[in-house]
Amino acid sequence: MPKFLFKRKYILYITLFFTAIFLMVLAKFNLTYFFISNQVWPEGPEPITSLSLNYVLDMMIGEVYVITFVTAIKVTLDFLEKQKRVTDLEKTQLETELLFLKAQVSPHFFFNTLNNIHSLALEKSDKTPRIIMRLSELMRYLLYETKSQRQSLSNEICCIQNYLDLEKIRHDDLLEVNMSISGDIQDKEIAPILLLTFVENAFKHGVNKNIGVIKIDVDFTVKEDFLYFTITNPLPVITKIENIFEHSSGIGLENVKKRLTLGYNQDDYKLTINNDNKFTVSLKIKVT
Which end of the chain is more exposed for a tag (fewer CB within 10 A), N or C? Predict the structure, then answer.
């Protein structure tokens, strides 16, 4: 019968429900009368030896109480199981999004960095050990330390610092990066690679599509339970301003928006993207 309830066939369910209860009462009456005692209803207002309307109604009401209680338990257990499935599905989806975002950290960035290491090694440059160490730390973070739904804010910032150091070595004097941190970043947590995606996007669309000296501003400000993150990069000179949002938001930022929706409550974050004169991403996000 429950399948009719779940299929929303309520009239059929109610009909079968009360029919089943009546048959149970009828069976109880006959079993008691023929096998136990002819006093079928000793607790009733008067002894009976045959099926009566009062007996049927009294027994059916009692059975309804019991079945309603059991049904409530069953519905509650089914609801909890459904909620668990939804939670597991969301967790799986978040993990899939994270794996995709890890792959989004541009492969060409790693190839270019390796080429730079090769060139520096041929020149026997003193920068070679430092760039290898930065690349190693960045890859270790991406591969092994981003499996949980939350990562410490300090680790995320350290990862971004390594990324910026590698980019500065790549672009040398053609890149100016101003990074500032204020507030207490200890004991704060954030979804991993969330901020790194914004940084990677700034280089992909702001640095690689411009010529001359490029300036990137990155700011981390922690106030109470929230992080105020801002990154600013120049608009691509090869892209028309009216189309900048379409080109600059890209797949990476769209995935960040999905991760924010899945991983945070609506009141826990606010994402603002502005493309007036410069491309600026501002994110207010809860980090407790």
Answer: C
Tokens of 85: 């499935």
Residue given tokens 């009546």 in the structure block: 22
pLDDT value of position 145: 82
Q: Residue 30 in 3-state DSSP?
A: helix
Q: Which residues pair with 270 in a beta bridge?
A: 284
Q: Look at the alpha carbons of 131, 132, 133, 137 in this order and tell me if their dihedral is positive or negative.
A: positive
Minimal CA–CA distance to 239: which of 272, 271, 275? 275
How far apart (Å, rounded) are the C-alpha atoms in residues 104 and 102? 5
**CB-based contacts of 248: which residues, under 8 Å, 6+ apart?**
201, 205, 206, 235, 236, 239, 275, 279
CATH 3.30.565.10 in the chain: give the residue spans.
Answer: 105-286
Q: How many CB atoms lie within 10 A of CB 121?
A: 14
Tell me the two tokens of residue 281.
């991403």
Does the pLDDT value for residue 232 go beyond 80?
yes
Contact indicator for 51, 41 with CB cutoff of 8 Å: no
What is the value of pTM for the model shown?
0.62
Which secondary-structure segment (H or E) carries 267? none
105-286: CATH class = alpha beta
Which residues pair with residue 233 across a beta bridge? 279
